[in-house]
């Protein structure tokens, strides 16, 4: 019984940290693009507003745009522009 409870607690801690991974950026700052590897991004929808006034589906897609264009785009806020 204690082993099951320990597994449940560990799972819940892991689940919470996995769910908050997309919020690794600071609003008004550069996204943490080193967290993402190419060629693709997760399909989660956690929109961010870039300093180019474009809404990106998530931080990773913003990072891909930065890599493609070579510009530094900051995150103004979480959510759409």
From TrEMBL:
Keywords: Disulfide bond, Protease inhibitor, Secreted, Serine protease inhibitor, Signal. GO terms for cellular component: extracellular region. SMART domains: KAZAL (SM00280). Residues 27-81 form the Kazal-like domain. GO terms for molecular function: serine-type endopeptidase inhibitor activity. Serine protease inhibitor which exhibits anti-trypsin activity. In the pancreas, protects against trypsin-catalyzed premature activation of zymogens. In the male reproductive tract, binds to sperm heads where it modulates sperm capacitance by inhibiting calcium uptake and nitrogen oxide (NO) production. This is Serine protease inhibitor Kazal-type 1. It comes from Capra hircus (Goat).
């Amino acid at each position: 019984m204690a082993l099951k409870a320990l597994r449940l607690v560990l799972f819940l801690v892991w689940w919470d940290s996995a769910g908050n991974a997309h919020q690794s950026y600071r609003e008004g700052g550069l996204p943490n693009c080193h967290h993402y590897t190419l060629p693709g991004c997760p399909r989660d929808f956690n929109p961010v507003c870039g300093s180019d006034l474009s809404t990106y589906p998530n931080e990773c897609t913003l990072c891909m745009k930065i890599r493609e264009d070579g510009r530094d785009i900051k995150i103004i806020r979480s959510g759409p522009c």
